[in-house]
Design a protein that fits this description.
This protein is of the alpha/beta class. It has one domain: Oxidized Rhodanese, domain 1 (3-Layer(aba) Sandwich), CATH 3.40.250.10. A 5-stranded parallel β-sheet has the order 1-7-6-2-3, with helices on both faces. A two-stranded antiparallel sheet has the order 4-5. It is globular, with a radius of gyration of 16 Å.
Length: 159
């Protein structure tokens, strides 16, 4: 009771470009998750749950337990990217080289099947050498999560 789709997620179609339906798999070695797998990952403390959307999307609504790491931070060298990669278990070896032998398991999501933010982050991490088998992708994103009436939060609202 009281569950509803917000205007953005109630849309049944979007202009293309810039929006395209994303493939089910980002990579053959990155497992695609559904809602039950996501809940098990988060409740079981199996790794870091990442909201790869831009901060303005995250601030409107998020899946509980997610940490916002906007996809754009993975795309080019910066101190912030270095901090994030270190948080994910990476060790910087040089200007652009990383050792991910201690990489954490991570699960990334964005707005839904029509959104390319988490796939872009995953591809950038693959390019940096992050182990694909350590990454999971929740393709349904916020749209599927809300469609199923699952709990969302507004980050910072209770602070």
């Amino acid at each position: 009771p009281g569950s509803y789709l917000t205007n953005t997620f109630a849309l049944t179609s979007r202009p293309s470009p810039p929006f395209f339906i994303e493939p089910f798999e980002v990579s053959s070695k990155v497992e695609t998750y559904g809602e039950l797998e996501l809940l098990d990952f988060v409740s079981g403390g199996k790794g870091l749950f990442i909201d790869a959307r831009l901060e303005n999307w995250y601030q409107k609504s998020a899946i509980p337990g997610a940490v916002n790491m906007p996809f754009k931070l993975f795309l080019s060298p910066s101190l912030k990217r270095d901090e994030i990669l270190t948080t994910l278990g990476g060790r910087k070896l040089g200007a652009e080289n990383w050792d991910f032998s201690n990489a954490k398991a991570i699960l990334l999501y964005c707005n839904g099947a029509w959104c390319g933010q988490s796939p872009t982050a995953i591809k950038a991490l693959i390019d940096l050498g992050y182990p694909e088998e350590k990454m999971k992708y929740y393709r349904g994103g916020m749209q599927a999560w809300q469609l199923l009436g699952l709990t969302t939060i507004v980050p910072g609202k209770d602070k």
